[in-house]
TrEMBL record:
GO MF entry, a single one: phosphomethylpyrimidine kinase activity
Pfam families membership: Phos_pyr_kin
Pathway: Cofactor biosynthesis; thiamine diphosphate biosynthesis; 4-amino-2-methyl-5-diphosphomethylpyrimidine from 5-amino-1-(5-phospho-D-ribosyl)imidazole: step 3/3; Cofactor biosynthesis; thiamine diphosphate biosynthesis; 4-amino-2-methyl-5-diphosphomethylpyrimidine from 5-amino-1-(5-phospho-D-ribosyl)imidazole: step 2/3
GO annotations of cellular component type: cytosol
One of the protein's GO biological processes: thiamine biosynthetic process
Catalytic reaction(s) noted: 4-amino-2-methyl-5-(phosphooxymethyl)pyrimidine + ATP = 4-amino-2-methyl-5-(diphosphooxymethyl)pyrimidine + ADP; 4-amino-5-hydroxymethyl-2-methylpyrimidine + ATP = 4-amino-2-methyl-5-(phosphooxymethyl)pyrimidine + ADP + H(+)
Listed SUPFAM superfamilies: Ribokinase-like
Protein name: Hydroxymethylpyrimidine/phosphomethylpyrimidine kinase
UniProt keyword list: ATP-binding, Kinase, Nucleotide-binding, Thiamine biosynthesis, Transferase
Gene coding for it: thiD
Broadest EC class assigned to this enzyme: transferase
Organism: Ureibacillus thermophilus
Length: 274
């Protein structure tokens, strides 16, 4: 069987549940080979002022150049890109490749609010990168920022946001409703059909890496040739299983268990056209 290849262009997260580490673990669990290009190191700690180390542009460019040697990358995701300059670099590079499946996770904040995107980078994200995306995967605050402040407080608001976000030019939009009350509902839209994904809400604060791993799982499934609807459904099952078997940290909120889907094979997600 051909080994499928996925790539992530994102930040490294020192607690290792999110960012590049989450992406690689997810790729491995879902049976694809993972390549990485690291844009930043996120080592935020309450006792330290400086914890975010953005990589120099030439270091990022050098990693992207290495990717050019792999002319058979099946799917790619972007995560934390941080600055206007990095987004421009990645967007220009992507335009020069023939990669077909591009997942843009418009990472803006860490789980507990630390900024992972410069404010003046928003326009570049919207005009240079998102139009090249096969799918974008904003959570509720990210969707709100992309839409210039549009409030999202309900499943109907998620649906409206999905419709409005299509204007930015991606082929699919997935708006994640992780912050709503009740079941964990996400909305997938292709400009024509709209789908609701629903999983039971797990009572935990240990969800570090849920968003990154979700977009990485979609990337892995697309790399394997799955159609988008199936890729998103499998990815939601993967992330739900991971949240259910969360790994608590002693002094900080913990992270999802990337092994859970393979070990326990949970299957509790409903997928319906609405
Ligand atoms: N407690 C939970 N139980 C089950 N699923 C959840 C829970 N929290 C989030 N999810 C799901 O996890 C996935 C990641 O979504 P989420 O909205 O948390 O993204 P995120 O980018 O991690 O966002 P945020 O940083 O706002 O928490 C989504 O499918 C969401 O529905
Ligand atoms: C480098 C990096 N990238 C992304 C996130 C957010 O991760 P998530 O929303 O999945 O918890 C993070 N904390 N650090």
């Amino acid at each position: 069987m051909t080994l499928r290849k996925a790539c992530t262009v994102a930040g490294a997260a020192a607690r290792s549940g999110a960012g590049i580490q989450a992406d690689l673990k997810t790729f491995q669990e879902l049976g694809v080979y993972g390549f990485t290009a690291i844009t930043a190191i996120n080592a935020k700690h309450p006792s330290k002022e400086q914890g975010l180390f953005i990589q120099p542009l030439d270091a990022i460019e050098a990693q992207l150049l290495i990717m050019n040697e792999q002319n058979d990358i099946d799917a790619l995701k972007t995560g934390m890109l941080f600055s206007k300059e990095i987004i421009e670099l990645v967007a220009n590079w992507l335009a020069s490749t023939s990669i077909q499946n591009i997942v843009v996770d418009p990472v803006m904040f860490g789980k507990f609010g630390s900024p992972l995107l410069d404010f003046d980078a928003m326009e570049t994200l919207k005009t240079k990168l998102i139009p090249q995306a096969t799918i974008i995967t904003p959570n509720m605050p990210e969707a709100t920022y992309l839409l210039g402040g549009q409030k999202i407080n309900s499943i109907e608001d998620l649906q409206d946001a999905a419709r409005d976000l299509m204007q930015l030019g991606s082929k699919y939009v997935l708006v994640k409703g992780g912050r709503l009350q009740g079941p964990a509902v996400d909305i997938l839209y292709d400009g024509n059909k709209m789908y609701k994904l629903e999983a039971p809400r797990i009572d935990t604060i240990h969800t570090n890496g849920a968003g990154c791993s979700y977009s990485a799982a979609i990337t892995a499934e697309l790399a394997k040739g799955k159609p988008m609807e199936e890729a998103v459904l499998n990815a939601k099952k993967f992330v739900t299983a991971g949240i259910k078997r969360f790994i608590p940290f002693e002094y900080a909120p913990g992270m999802i268990d990337h092994r859970a889907y393979k070990v326990y094979g949970e299957d509790e997600v409903q997928f319906n056209e609405i």
